[in-house]
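User: Second chain of the day. Same drill as before.
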Amino acid sequence: MSFLMSVLLFLHIVGAALVFGLWVAYFKPPRVVPAQFYAALLQVITGLIMFGMLEMQGGAVNHAKLGVKLVIGIVIAVVAFIGQRKYKRGEEVPTGIAHTVGGLSLINIAVATLWN
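Assistant: Same format as last time:
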């Protein structure tokens, strides 16, 4: 079970790195690429699985923190979906959409690391 949790945590961190890293890479001109959407989905899915595993093991779980992270993660995924659809259609991605995806991913990383 520990190995599975480690793999899930690894994938969760890779998802965060992709969402944030691609935001930085495409800061100017701002855009949201499909990889950001899929990375956001990866984060939400792995986060939910890890939460479920912690609950099953009877570990100490900070429900407020994980609830905040889940809401932010879902918002990132929805906004990234909207942005990547515009990108795929060749339309200009509004600056607010692109920076919402990146900024919220940074906030989600901060919540994960700074909230004890």
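The two ends are 24 Å apart (CA to CA).

User: Great, on to the next one.
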